[in-house]
Design goal:
- The structure is a single chain.
- The chain is 5% helix and 66% strand.
- It contains 2 helices and 25 strands.
- The chain is elongated, with a radius of gyration of 23 Å.
- The N and C termini lie far apart (48 Å).
């Protein structure tokens, strides 16, 4: 692996990479808010960043763009028909960079030109799709009379992006079919085998937040079966403060329902979470070079603390979970 350097050449590259952002889609409020997956071709390499639009507590429009290098602001947003302009500001410690964006939004694609003293680049973005809320692992509790049984339900997408599920239990063999999630309700059929015995049940449960409340039904009656999302305390968006010898900068960690995640705009396949210990690894690909990044820390009392290790050194990390702001329509 190669090391990242902080010379003037990197500063110019960082500025261009950080400014890989775009703007809203659709008509008025519905198309304005949400996250955008932006792609930038730079020096025969493609980089990504995430642009997010929301409202603050006073109902004012706010925007941020997020990349591996930190969090920036979008200001002076203007739109006339398909034409969009705004100013990007990024604080990189000892310098502040400003870029101007001119673009158009057509058929759900945002394309434009971003210009600064460092040059011009083209950007293209599409709205980032939200992850299905039922995906992930669920610690299930089955009540039969005075007895309780613990097991795990894992819901994932198949190759066609249809829902599938696995019932992980030390008792018997189980096959789940016809998995559906609609209007906040999860349903599926299950065939259970214990030795030479076999029977079928159906499940219906309601999802509220990170809690699944439901019942198995069969000819023998009904059995309560409720679940709690594995990693619920970690799922959501985190504002990170990272401190090192090079200074302090901000970053965003987004943990998805299945415990995959994004650090800035970098994808994390799976976050490790065991007894409050949090860990993850990711790779920054730039041209022919790869840069390994890893995190190890803990989740305690709603705070995330730990160390981020890169080829540049180690940063102390503290994180605070962001409370969602109800959007005005």
């Amino acid at each position: 692996m190669k090391s990242l350097h902080r010379g003037s050449g990197l500063v110019s590259i960082v500025f261009l990479l950080v400014l890989c952002s775009g703007l809203w889609a659709g008509s008025q409020s519905k198309g304005l808010f949400g996250e955008w997956d932006m792609k930038l071709d730079f020096d025969n390499s493609q980089m990504k960043s995430i642009l997010t639009f929301a409202r603050d507590k006073e109902g004012e429009l706010t925007a941020q763009w997020i990349s591996i290098f930190g969090i920036g602001e979008v200001k002076d947003i203007k739109r006339e028909g398909k034409n969009i302009t705004f100013t990007l500001t990024n604080d990189m410690g000892d310098q502040v960079y400003i870029g101007n964006y001119i673009g158009t939004l057509e058929k759900g694609v945002l394309s434009g030109l971003l210009s600064s003293d460092s040059g011009e680049i083209t950007t293209e973005g599409k709205r980032l799709k939200r992850m299905h809320p039922i995906l992930g692992s669920w610690n299930m509790t089955i009540k039969m009379g005075d007895r309780e049984f613990k097991t795990v339900l894992v819901v994932t997408p198949d190759k066609q992006k249809k829902l599938q599920a696995e019932w992980q239990s030390q008792w018997g063999e189980h096959e789940i079919t016809d998995v559906q999630f609609k209007d906040g309700k999860l349903t599926f059929s299950r065939i259970s085998k214990f030795g030479d015995r076999e029977w079928e049940t159906t499940y219906e449960g309601s999802l509220k937040g990170h809690t699944l409340t439901g019942t198995f039904s069969s000819q023998q009656g009904q059995i309560p079966a409720n679940g709690k999302r594995v990693g619920a305390a970690l799922v959501g968006k985190w504002d990170l403060t990272m401190s090192s010898e090079q200074g302090t900068r901000k970053q965003r960690l987004t943990v998805l329902p299945n415990l995959s995640a994004r650090f800035g705009a970098l994808s994390i396949k799976k976050i490790g979470l065991e007894e409050g210990q949090v860990s993850f690894e990711m790779t920054l690909q730039f041209g022919d070079n790869e840069y390994e990044i890893s995190f190890g820390g803990k989740l305690d009392a709603g705070k995330l603390t730990g160390k981020l290790t890169t080829s540049q050194g180690i940063s102390e990390v503290t994180g605070t979970k962001i409370k969602p702001i109800r959007q005005k329509k």
